[in-house]
TrEMBL record:
Record's compositionally biased regions (Low complexity): 11-33
Transmembrane segments annotated in the record for this chain: 43-64, 118-139, 151-171, 202-224, 254-279, 307-328
GO biological process, one term: transmembrane transport
Pfam families associated with the record: BPD_transp_1 (PF00528)
Record keywords: Cell membrane, Membrane, Transmembrane, Transmembrane helix, Transport
UniProt membrane topology term: Multi-pass membrane protein
Protein name stated in the entry: ABC transporter permease subunit
Superkingdom as given in the UniProt entry: Bacteria
GO cellular component: plasma membrane
Amino acid sequence: MARTMKSEAKAAGGPDTPGGPRRTGTRGETAPGPLRRALATHWYAWTMIAPVVIVVAVIIGYPLGRGVWLSLTNADESNVERTIGANTIEATYEFVGLDNYTAILTDTVFWSRLGWTVLWTVACVSITFTIGLTLANMLNRKLRGRALYRVLLILPWGIPAFVSVFAWRLLFNERNGLLNNVLNGGGIDSIAWLGDPTWAKVSVIAVNVWLGVPFMLVATLGALQSIPGELYEAAEMDGAGPWQRFRNITMPGIRAVSSTVILLSTIWTFNMFPVIYLLTRGGPGDSSEILVTYAFRLAFLNSPRDFASSAAWGVLILLLLVAFAVGYRRVLRKQGEVW
């Protein structure tokens, strides 16, 4: 009897046979795929994040796509669409492919700007991280007035960057600045802080470090407070000195946080337009100009304004940062860090 029923099922091409029809729902519908199941299960979450995703895609995606397109054209002030009175002049720029990138990469201007940008970024990030970690270690201990010190050290973070830069510009004033007045009072000649190429670079690094220390301080202080105190007590009982405790407990304990803040600080510093532009405007001459300020100069200060070359510089900056982030991530993975 059972053998007869099984043979009838096979003859009918039922679900028990390899060649039978696909399993269906109660009404004969095909079972939903993984994407449909995820949408059906988490529809509320998708609905909540959809507006944010759309806004971010429009705000970031459209300008990025527009910039990439312009970098492949010869668009400048004379051939883009513009309106004069009631008349609209149509755009006449043309597609030129990779000509802009070839011109940039074969020009010594790009490589000189890139060299200074890398030096500026490495100097700012390394000094900022060192000072921030040092201050975080000091504030992680029990001392009187610790809350006041924390507020004072975080204060530069609460002041708008352009206000801080203008204040520092007054301090660096060659004739009436506070710094030169102090030097003159000690019998030392005034320094052309913003008029000498070397001192201008030192000045912009100092201002950017002053602005970046609070971020490093807050991040590393939070990481330090997450390290169990029992580890330090056990190491001290075993005879480990301060440097050994710092190297074997503190640094491994904050590695996950420090690797992230170093990456973020590198990206921000590489594109730190306000400090350079508001303090020195890339001068004297072009000695303190980084990649992003030069791209701005091409698009808005030069005559005629070269939108295509500026967009190409922007795309190259993006590619450099993406390459750095990918390489940095691979290094962390080799070291066993999850990121």
